[in-house]
C-alpha cells in the first residue's frame, strides 16, 4: 500500500511502491481506456453525487490519469490512518481474487456519508443482431466459432481458472450490499467494439474501444494461453491474426458491458 500521507499538487500524479510498473505501451492503452470511459459517461469522472471531496482513494488506477492515489496491491490489508470521502475503482476485471474482501475494505475506509463507486466490465462479447453467433463464420459455415468468439471464450475461461473473475460488473451491486453499503445504485452501459454503431456517440466510443483492445491484444492473451493453457507462441499469434481481422470487420457487431 502507498503511504496515504503523501500528496501531490493538482494536476500531478505520484506513484508509490509499484510492484509491476506498466510498460509504456500499457500506459498508452490505459490512457485510451480512460478516454473511452470518459466519453461513454458524457465526460463525467464520477457518477455519484459527491460534493467537494477532500480525500479520494482510487483503486487500480492504471497510469494515474484519474488518480489521486495509487494502490499497488489492493488485496493486501489497507493501512490508511484516515477514511475517504470517495473510494473509486475500475478496470479490475480479471485482476481480483477476492472481491467480497475488497468490498469490505472499501466499506471500512469510506467515511459515513461518503461514496464508493466501482465501474467494471462484463467481458463476455455479444451481439444483438446475431453477427457474433456460433452460426456465423468467416466461411459462412454453421457450427464453428469465428476466431474472436473462440478467443474471448477461451480467454475468459482461462482467467476464471486462474481464480480471477473477468466479469465482475453484474456482481458489483450484490457485493456492495453484502459489504454494508446503503442506497446502492447500478447502471449498465453497452460498449461497442469498433465504429460500427449508427449512433454518433456510440460510434466514437466504439472507435476508442477498438484501439485499446488492439493495443492490448497480445498482453491480454500470451501469458494465459501459453503459461496456463499450454499453447505455443506461434499458435497464439495465428489466432490473434484472425482475431484482428474480426475486430475490424464492420459486419461483426460485437460489444460488451460496463
What is the ordering of alpha helices and beta strands? HEEHEEHHEHHE
Q: Round the mean pLDDT to the nearest integer and report it.
A: 79
Largest sheet: 3 strands, parallel
Helix content: 25-40%
Given the structure, what is the number of helices?
Answer: 6
Task: List low-pLDDT spans.
Answer: 1-21, 62-71, 134-144
State the end-to-end CA separation: 27 Å
Provide the spatial order of strands within the biggest beta sheet. 1-2-3
Structural class by sheet pairing and helices: alpha/beta
What spatial form do the alpha-carbon principal axes imply? globular
Which percent band covers the strand fraction? 5-15%
Topology:
Blueprint lengths: L23 H17 L15 E4 L24 E7 L8 H10 L1 E10 L2 E5 L20 H15 L10 H8 L10 E3 L7 H29 L4 H15 L7 E3 L1
Parallel strand pairs: 1-2, 2-3
Antiparallel strand pairs: 4-6, 5-6
Helix pairs in contact: 1-5, 2-4, 3-5, 5-6
Can you tell me about this structure?
The protein is an alpha/beta fold and 258 residues long. 36% of the residues lie in helices and 12% in strands. The protein contains six helices and six strands, in the order αββαββααβααβ. It has helices spanning 24-40, 99-108, 147-161, 172-179, 200-228, 233-247, and strands at 56-59, 84-90, 110-119, 122-126, 190-192, 255-257. Strands 1-2-3 form a three-stranded parallel sheet.
Amino acid at each position: 500500500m502507498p503511504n496515504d500521507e503523501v500528496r501531490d499538487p493538482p494536476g500531478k500524479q505520484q506513484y508509490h511502491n509499484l510492484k509491476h510498473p506498466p510498460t509504456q505501451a500499457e500506459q498508452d492503452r490505459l490512457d485510451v481506456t480512460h478516454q473511452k470511459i470518459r466519453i461513454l459517461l458524457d465526460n463525467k469522472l464520477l457518477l455519484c453525487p459527491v460534493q467537494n471531496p477532500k480525500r479520494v482513494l482510487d483503486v487500480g488506477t492504471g497510469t494515474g490519469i484519474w488518480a489521486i492515489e495509487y494502490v499497488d496491491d489492493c488485496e493486501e490489508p489497507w493501512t490508511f490512518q484516515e477514511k475517504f470521502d470517495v473510494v473509486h475503482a475500475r478496470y479490475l476485471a480479471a485482476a481480483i481474487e477476492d472481491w467480497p474482501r475488497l468490498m469490505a475494505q472499501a466499506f471500512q475506509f469510506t467515511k459515513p456519508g461518503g461514496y464508493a463507486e466501482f465501474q467494471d466490465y462484463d467481458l463476455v462479447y455479444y451481439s444483438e443482431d446475431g453477427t457474433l453467433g456460433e452460426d456465423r463464420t468467416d466461411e459462412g459455415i454453421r457450427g464453428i466459432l469465428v476466431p474472436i468468439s473462440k478467443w474471448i471464450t477461451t480467454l475468459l475461461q482461462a482467467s476464471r481458472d486462474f481464480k480471477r473473475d473477468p466479469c465482475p460488473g453484474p456482481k458489483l451491486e450484490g457485493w456492495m450490499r453484502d459489504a454494508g453499503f446503503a442506497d446502492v445504485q447500478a447502471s449498465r452501459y453497452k460498449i461497442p467494439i469498433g465504429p460500427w454503431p449508427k449512433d454518433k456517440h456510440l460510434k466514437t466510443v466504439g472507435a476508442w474501444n477498438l484501439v485499446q483492445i488492439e493495443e492490448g491484444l497480445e498482453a491480454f492473451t500470451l501469458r494465459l494461453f501459453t503459461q496456463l493453457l499450454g499453447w505455443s507462441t506461434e499458435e497464439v499469434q495465428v489466432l490473434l491474426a484472425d482475431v484482428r481481422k474480426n475486430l475490424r470487420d464492420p459486419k461483426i457487431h460485437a460489444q460488451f458491458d460496463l
